[in-house]
Fold this protein.
Amino acid sequence: MGTSETKLAMAEVLPAGGVKILSHCKIPSNGMRKSMVVNMQQVTYSLRSVVKSTEKDYMLQPREVGLVVSGPHIKCYPLEETLAVSTSKVSEEDIIAIEEKVSSVPNTQEYEVLDVIVSKYGLDDLNELYDPPKDMHGKLLRCTALVIQAEKTHIKNIVSVAEEANLSVASIFFSGYSASVAVLTQQQKQDGTLVINLGGGTTTYSFWYKGNMLYTNVIGVGGDHVTDDISYAFSISRTQAESIKQEYASAIVLNTAERIQLKGIIGNKNATISLRALHTVVNARMHELFKIICVDLDEKGFLHNLNGGIILTGGGAYLKNIINLAETVCGRSVQLGRLIPEIAGLEKVEQPAKYASVAGLLYQMSLDFQPKKSFLSRVFGGVFKK
Protein backbone atom coordinates (compact mmCIF):
# COMPACT_ATOMS: atom_id res chain seq x y z
CA MET A 1 0.00 0.00 0.00
CA GLY A 2 2.07 2.87 -1.34
CA THR A 3 1.55 6.61 -1.41
CA SER A 4 0.55 6.65 -5.08
CA GLU A 5 -0.64 3.12 -5.78
CA THR A 6 -2.00 0.10 -3.96
CA LYS A 7 -0.80 -3.14 -5.51
CA LEU A 8 -1.87 -6.70 -4.84
CA ALA A 9 -0.24 -9.71 -6.44
CA MET A 10 -0.59 -13.47 -5.98
CA ALA A 11 1.82 -16.18 -7.01
CA GLU A 12 2.36 -19.92 -6.96
CA VAL A 13 5.55 -21.48 -5.65
CA LEU A 14 7.36 -23.37 -8.39
CA PRO A 15 8.62 -26.91 -7.65
CA ALA A 16 12.17 -25.98 -8.71
CA GLY A 17 12.14 -22.84 -6.60
CA GLY A 18 11.01 -19.30 -7.30
CA VAL A 19 7.52 -18.04 -8.01
CA LYS A 20 5.18 -17.46 -10.92
CA ILE A 21 2.95 -14.44 -10.42
CA LEU A 22 -0.61 -15.38 -11.33
CA SER A 23 -2.34 -12.05 -10.76
CA HIS A 24 -1.40 -8.43 -10.30
CA CYS A 25 -3.73 -5.50 -9.81
CA LYS A 26 -3.17 -1.87 -8.90
CA ILE A 27 -5.29 1.20 -8.27
CA PRO A 28 -4.46 4.76 -7.16
CA SER A 29 -4.01 5.03 -3.40
CA ASN A 30 -6.01 7.32 -1.18
CA GLY A 31 -5.36 8.12 2.45
CA MET A 32 -1.60 7.48 2.36
CA ARG A 33 1.21 10.01 2.82
CA LYS A 34 4.89 9.14 2.69
CA SER A 35 3.89 5.45 2.71
CA MET A 36 2.00 5.87 6.00
CA VAL A 37 -1.72 5.70 6.71
CA VAL A 38 -3.30 9.12 7.33
CA ASN A 39 -6.94 8.22 6.61
CA MET A 40 -8.07 4.73 7.62
CA GLN A 41 -11.36 4.83 5.71
CA GLN A 42 -9.79 5.91 2.41
CA VAL A 43 -6.96 3.38 2.60
CA THR A 44 -9.38 0.59 3.52
CA TYR A 45 -11.54 1.48 0.53
CA SER A 46 -8.51 1.38 -1.77
CA LEU A 47 -7.45 -2.02 -0.48
CA ARG A 48 -10.93 -3.46 -0.70
CA SER A 49 -11.16 -2.20 -4.27
CA VAL A 50 -7.96 -3.90 -5.38
CA VAL A 51 -9.01 -7.14 -3.63
CA LYS A 52 -12.34 -7.07 -5.48
CA SER A 53 -10.50 -6.43 -8.73
CA THR A 54 -8.34 -9.51 -8.14
CA GLU A 55 -11.35 -11.65 -7.34
CA LYS A 56 -13.23 -10.44 -10.42
CA ASP A 57 -10.44 -10.50 -12.99
CA TYR A 58 -8.53 -13.59 -11.86
CA MET A 59 -11.07 -15.62 -9.87
CA LEU A 60 -8.64 -15.65 -6.95
CA GLN A 61 -9.57 -14.82 -3.38
CA PRO A 62 -6.70 -13.52 -1.26
CA ARG A 63 -7.15 -14.14 2.45
CA GLU A 64 -3.73 -14.45 4.10
CA VAL A 65 -1.21 -11.91 2.89
CA GLY A 66 2.23 -10.46 3.34
CA LEU A 67 2.61 -6.69 3.60
CA VAL A 68 5.54 -4.71 2.28
CA VAL A 69 6.05 -1.48 4.22
CA SER A 70 8.14 1.66 3.91
CA GLY A 71 8.18 5.20 5.24
CA PRO A 72 10.52 7.57 7.06
CA HIS A 73 9.54 5.91 10.34
CA ILE A 74 11.70 2.92 9.30
CA LYS A 75 15.04 2.94 11.09
CA CYS A 76 18.13 0.79 10.71
CA TYR A 77 21.25 0.43 12.82
CA PRO A 78 24.22 -1.96 13.10
CA LEU A 79 24.45 -4.31 16.07
CA GLU A 80 27.54 -6.29 17.09
CA GLU A 81 27.70 -9.22 19.50
CA THR A 82 30.71 -11.20 20.73
CA LEU A 83 31.16 -14.79 21.87
CA ALA A 84 34.07 -16.70 23.35
CA VAL A 85 34.96 -19.64 21.11
CA SER A 86 34.17 -22.89 22.92
CA THR A 87 37.27 -24.75 21.70
CA SER A 88 40.48 -23.86 19.89
CA LYS A 89 38.63 -23.28 16.62
CA VAL A 90 35.23 -21.99 15.56
CA SER A 91 32.58 -24.70 15.34
CA GLU A 92 29.21 -24.68 13.66
CA GLU A 93 27.66 -24.52 17.14
CA ASP A 94 29.62 -21.31 17.80
CA ILE A 95 28.28 -19.76 14.58
CA ILE A 96 24.73 -20.75 15.45
CA ALA A 97 25.10 -19.43 19.00
CA ILE A 98 26.38 -15.98 17.99
CA GLU A 99 23.83 -15.64 15.20
CA GLU A 100 21.05 -16.50 17.63
CA LYS A 101 22.50 -13.95 20.04
CA VAL A 102 22.64 -11.12 17.51
CA SER A 103 19.20 -11.95 16.13
CA SER A 104 17.51 -11.81 19.54
CA VAL A 105 16.73 -8.11 19.35
CA PRO A 106 13.76 -7.25 21.58
CA ASN A 107 10.97 -4.98 20.49
CA THR A 108 10.76 -1.68 22.35
CA GLN A 109 7.74 0.25 23.48
CA GLU A 110 7.77 2.31 20.28
CA TYR A 111 9.49 0.11 17.67
CA GLU A 112 8.86 -3.32 16.15
CA VAL A 113 11.79 -5.27 14.71
CA LEU A 114 11.06 -6.17 11.08
CA ASP A 115 14.31 -7.90 10.23
CA VAL A 116 17.79 -8.70 11.50
CA ILE A 117 20.28 -9.33 8.68
CA VAL A 118 23.77 -10.61 9.43
CA SER A 119 26.33 -8.59 7.48
CA LYS A 120 29.79 -9.72 8.60
CA TYR A 121 31.93 -11.51 11.17
CA GLY A 122 35.18 -10.97 13.00
CA LEU A 123 37.60 -13.27 14.78
CA ASP A 124 40.20 -11.87 17.17
CA ASP A 125 42.09 -9.24 15.14
CA LEU A 126 40.47 -10.29 11.84
CA ASN A 127 37.68 -8.00 10.61
CA GLU A 128 35.49 -7.79 7.50
CA LEU A 129 34.82 -11.55 7.27
CA TYR A 130 31.73 -11.89 5.12
CA ASP A 131 31.46 -15.67 5.47
CA PRO A 132 31.17 -17.57 8.76
CA PRO A 133 34.74 -18.33 9.97
CA LYS A 134 33.95 -22.00 10.60
CA ASP A 135 37.00 -24.17 11.51
CA MET A 136 39.23 -21.12 11.83
CA HIS A 137 41.38 -20.89 14.97
CA GLY A 138 40.62 -18.05 17.35
CA LYS A 139 39.31 -17.06 20.76
CA LEU A 140 36.78 -14.25 20.32
CA LEU A 141 34.08 -14.43 17.66
CA ARG A 142 32.17 -11.33 16.56
CA CYS A 143 29.03 -10.94 14.47
CA THR A 144 27.59 -7.71 13.07
CA ALA A 145 23.99 -7.45 11.88
CA LEU A 146 21.75 -4.79 10.39
CA VAL A 147 18.59 -4.28 12.47
CA ILE A 148 15.55 -2.88 10.65
CA GLN A 149 12.70 -1.62 12.78
CA ALA A 150 9.47 0.33 12.31
CA GLU A 151 7.27 2.41 14.56
CA LYS A 152 4.58 0.20 16.08
CA THR A 153 1.79 2.72 15.55
CA HIS A 154 2.30 2.79 11.77
CA ILE A 155 2.54 -0.99 11.59
CA LYS A 156 -0.65 -1.37 13.63
CA ASN A 157 -2.47 1.09 11.36
CA ILE A 158 -1.58 -0.73 8.17
CA VAL A 159 -2.38 -4.13 9.70
CA SER A 160 -5.76 -2.78 10.84
CA VAL A 161 -6.49 -1.65 7.29
CA ALA A 162 -5.72 -5.13 5.97
CA GLU A 163 -7.96 -6.71 8.59
CA GLU A 164 -10.80 -4.30 7.72
CA ALA A 165 -10.46 -5.62 4.16
CA ASN A 166 -10.85 -9.19 5.51
CA LEU A 167 -7.19 -10.02 5.02
CA SER A 168 -5.11 -11.84 7.60
CA VAL A 169 -1.53 -10.55 7.76
CA ALA A 170 0.95 -13.43 7.93
CA SER A 171 4.19 -11.49 7.46
CA ILE A 172 5.53 -7.95 7.18
CA PHE A 173 8.48 -7.11 4.94
CA PHE A 174 10.63 -4.02 4.48
CA SER A 175 10.33 -2.58 0.96
CA GLY A 176 14.05 -1.87 0.60
CA TYR A 177 14.92 -5.51 1.12
CA SER A 178 12.04 -6.83 -0.99
CA ALA A 179 12.85 -4.58 -3.97
CA SER A 180 16.51 -5.61 -3.79
CA VAL A 181 15.72 -9.32 -3.65
CA ALA A 182 13.56 -8.96 -6.76
CA VAL A 183 16.24 -7.42 -9.02
CA LEU A 184 19.71 -8.33 -7.73
CA THR A 185 21.70 -11.30 -8.99
CA GLN A 186 24.10 -13.07 -6.66
CA GLN A 187 27.01 -11.45 -8.50
CA GLN A 188 25.58 -7.96 -8.04
CA LYS A 189 25.13 -8.64 -4.33
CA GLN A 190 28.81 -9.59 -4.17
CA ASP A 191 30.20 -6.71 -6.22
CA GLY A 192 28.67 -3.83 -4.27
CA THR A 193 25.38 -2.58 -5.70
CA LEU A 194 22.93 0.09 -4.64
CA VAL A 195 19.20 -0.38 -5.24
CA ILE A 196 17.17 2.85 -5.20
CA ASN A 197 13.41 2.31 -5.02
CA LEU A 198 11.75 5.53 -6.23
CA GLY A 199 8.21 5.56 -4.85
CA GLY A 200 5.47 8.14 -4.78
CA GLY A 201 5.97 9.40 -1.23
CA THR A 202 9.30 7.89 -0.22
CA THR A 203 12.61 6.79 -1.69
CA THR A 204 14.34 3.74 -0.22
CA TYR A 205 17.92 2.82 -0.96
CA SER A 206 19.81 -0.32 0.03
CA PHE A 207 23.51 -1.12 -0.36
CA TRP A 208 24.66 -4.72 -0.89
CA TYR A 209 28.24 -5.98 -0.68
CA LYS A 210 29.84 -9.42 -0.36
CA GLY A 211 26.41 -11.02 -0.61
CA ASN A 212 24.75 -9.10 2.21
CA MET A 213 22.72 -5.94 2.66
CA LEU A 214 25.00 -3.72 4.73
CA TYR A 215 22.98 -0.52 4.83
CA THR A 216 19.55 0.87 4.03
CA ASN A 217 17.69 4.13 4.53
CA VAL A 218 14.37 5.80 3.71
CA ILE A 219 13.90 9.41 2.60
CA GLY A 220 10.46 11.00 2.76
CA VAL A 221 10.70 12.31 -0.80
CA GLY A 222 9.26 10.72 -3.94
CA GLY A 223 7.44 11.29 -7.19
CA ASP A 224 4.55 13.06 -5.49
CA HIS A 225 6.93 15.81 -4.40
CA VAL A 226 7.92 16.37 -8.04
CA THR A 227 4.24 16.72 -8.86
CA ASP A 228 3.81 19.24 -6.03
CA ASP A 229 6.83 21.21 -7.27
CA ILE A 230 5.33 21.46 -10.76
CA SER A 231 1.96 22.50 -9.36
CA TYR A 232 3.52 25.24 -7.23
CA ALA A 233 5.98 26.49 -9.87
CA PHE A 234 3.35 26.98 -12.57
CA SER A 235 0.28 27.69 -10.39
CA ILE A 236 -1.71 24.77 -11.79
CA SER A 237 -3.79 22.06 -10.15
CA ARG A 238 -2.12 18.95 -8.85
CA THR A 239 -4.06 16.85 -11.35
CA GLN A 240 -2.70 18.95 -14.22
CA ALA A 241 0.80 18.78 -12.76
CA GLU A 242 0.69 14.98 -12.56
CA SER A 243 -0.53 14.73 -16.14
CA ILE A 244 2.23 17.06 -17.38
CA LYS A 245 4.85 15.15 -15.39
CA GLN A 246 3.81 11.84 -16.91
CA GLU A 247 3.87 13.16 -20.48
CA TYR A 248 6.60 15.80 -20.62
CA ALA A 249 8.88 15.72 -17.56
CA SER A 250 12.61 15.03 -17.85
CA ALA A 251 15.17 14.56 -15.09
CA ILE A 252 17.76 16.49 -17.10
CA VAL A 253 17.24 19.91 -18.66
CA LEU A 254 16.93 19.64 -22.43
CA ASN A 255 17.83 22.58 -24.64
CA THR A 256 14.46 23.29 -26.17
CA ALA A 257 12.25 26.30 -26.80
CA GLU A 258 9.06 24.21 -26.97
CA ARG A 259 6.06 25.21 -24.88
CA ILE A 260 3.34 22.96 -23.46
CA GLN A 261 -0.31 23.78 -24.00
CA LEU A 262 -2.21 23.73 -20.72
CA LYS A 263 -5.72 22.34 -20.93
CA GLY A 264 -8.64 23.34 -18.77
CA ILE A 265 -7.34 26.74 -17.64
CA ILE A 266 -10.50 28.78 -17.08
CA GLY A 267 -10.42 32.14 -18.82
CA ASN A 268 -7.19 31.44 -20.73
CA LYS A 269 -7.42 28.89 -23.49
CA ASN A 270 -3.92 29.73 -24.75
CA ALA A 271 -2.04 29.15 -21.46
CA THR A 272 1.35 27.50 -21.97
CA ILE A 273 4.47 26.77 -19.95
CA SER A 274 8.07 26.41 -21.06
CA LEU A 275 9.23 22.81 -21.46
CA ARG A 276 12.73 23.85 -20.42
CA ALA A 277 11.30 25.46 -17.27
CA LEU A 278 9.43 22.23 -16.50
CA HIS A 279 12.64 20.23 -16.86
CA THR A 280 14.44 22.68 -14.58
CA VAL A 281 11.87 22.16 -11.82
CA VAL A 282 12.04 18.37 -12.08
CA ASN A 283 15.83 18.33 -12.31
CA ALA A 284 16.22 20.41 -9.15
CA ARG A 285 14.25 17.95 -7.03
CA MET A 286 15.77 14.77 -8.48
CA HIS A 287 19.33 16.13 -8.47
CA GLU A 288 18.95 16.98 -4.78
CA LEU A 289 17.58 13.50 -4.02
CA PHE A 290 20.45 11.63 -5.68
CA LYS A 291 22.97 13.98 -4.09
CA ILE A 292 21.60 13.25 -0.61
CA ILE A 293 21.84 9.50 -1.24
CA CYS A 294 25.41 9.63 -2.52
CA VAL A 295 26.61 11.90 0.29
CA ASP A 296 25.05 9.53 2.83
CA LEU A 297 26.77 6.51 1.28
CA ASP A 298 30.06 8.36 1.17
CA GLU A 299 29.81 9.35 4.83
CA LYS A 300 29.06 5.72 5.75
CA GLY A 301 32.12 4.57 3.78
CA PHE A 302 30.21 2.55 1.18
CA LEU A 303 30.45 4.71 -1.95
CA HIS A 304 33.95 3.52 -2.89
CA ASN A 305 32.68 -0.10 -2.89
CA LEU A 306 29.89 0.62 -5.36
CA ASN A 307 31.48 -1.56 -8.05
CA GLY A 308 28.21 -3.08 -9.27
CA GLY A 309 26.64 0.30 -9.94
CA ILE A 310 23.13 1.48 -9.17
CA ILE A 311 19.79 -0.14 -9.99
CA LEU A 312 16.56 1.87 -10.07
CA THR A 313 13.15 0.41 -9.22
CA GLY A 314 9.70 1.82 -8.47
CA GLY A 315 7.51 4.10 -10.55
CA GLY A 316 10.05 6.94 -10.48
CA ALA A 317 12.54 4.73 -12.32
CA TYR A 318 10.58 5.43 -15.51
CA LEU A 319 10.96 9.21 -15.41
CA LYS A 320 12.54 10.30 -18.68
CA ASN A 321 16.36 10.66 -18.51
CA ILE A 322 16.46 9.61 -14.84
CA ILE A 323 19.31 7.18 -15.54
CA ASN A 324 21.41 9.94 -17.16
CA LEU A 325 20.92 12.20 -14.15
CA ALA A 326 21.74 9.48 -11.61
CA GLU A 327 24.96 8.63 -13.46
CA THR A 328 25.97 12.29 -13.57
CA VAL A 329 25.32 12.92 -9.87
CA CYS A 330 26.62 9.64 -8.46
CA GLY A 331 29.44 8.98 -10.91
CA ARG A 332 28.49 5.30 -11.25
CA SER A 333 26.79 3.20 -13.89
CA VAL A 334 23.01 3.12 -13.49
CA GLN A 335 20.45 0.73 -14.95
CA LEU A 336 16.74 0.01 -14.75
CA GLY A 337 15.87 -2.92 -12.51
CA ARG A 338 14.99 -6.25 -14.10
CA LEU A 339 13.28 -9.03 -12.19
CA ILE A 340 15.49 -12.04 -11.48
CA PRO A 341 14.74 -15.30 -13.39
CA GLU A 342 13.30 -16.83 -10.21
CA ILE A 343 10.35 -14.42 -10.48
CA ALA A 344 8.15 -15.22 -13.48
CA GLY A 345 4.77 -14.00 -14.68
CA LEU A 346 5.45 -10.30 -15.30
CA GLU A 347 7.24 -10.64 -18.64
CA LYS A 348 4.45 -8.82 -20.50
CA VAL A 349 4.00 -6.03 -17.95
CA GLU A 350 4.94 -2.67 -19.47
CA GLN A 351 6.89 -1.34 -16.47
CA PRO A 352 7.93 -4.35 -14.35
CA ALA A 353 10.31 -2.39 -12.08
CA LYS A 354 7.20 -0.81 -10.54
CA TYR A 355 6.40 -4.22 -9.10
CA ALA A 356 9.84 -4.89 -7.61
CA SER A 357 8.75 -4.56 -3.97
CA VAL A 358 5.65 -6.74 -4.22
CA ALA A 359 7.43 -9.28 -6.46
CA GLY A 360 10.28 -9.50 -3.97
CA LEU A 361 7.74 -9.94 -1.17
CA LEU A 362 6.23 -12.95 -2.96
CA TYR A 363 9.66 -14.42 -3.58
CA GLN A 364 10.60 -14.01 0.09
CA MET A 365 7.33 -15.61 1.20
CA SER A 366 7.97 -18.54 -1.14
CA LEU A 367 11.13 -19.36 0.80
CA ASP A 368 8.92 -20.52 3.68
CA PHE A 369 7.80 -23.36 1.42
CA GLN A 370 11.37 -24.47 0.76
CA PRO A 371 13.42 -26.71 3.05
CA LYS A 372 14.46 -24.71 6.09
CA LYS A 373 17.99 -23.31 5.99
CA SER A 374 20.39 -23.41 8.90
CA PHE A 375 21.61 -20.28 10.63
CA LEU A 376 24.65 -20.49 8.36
CA SER A 377 22.43 -18.97 5.67
CA ARG A 378 23.16 -15.67 7.49
CA VAL A 379 19.60 -14.45 7.04
CA PHE A 380 17.30 -14.34 10.03
CA GLY A 381 13.66 -14.81 9.23
CA GLY A 382 13.33 -11.88 6.88
CA VAL A 383 9.83 -11.37 8.24
CA PHE A 384 7.96 -10.31 11.33
CA LYS A 385 5.49 -13.09 12.10
CA LYS A 386 2.06 -12.16 13.38
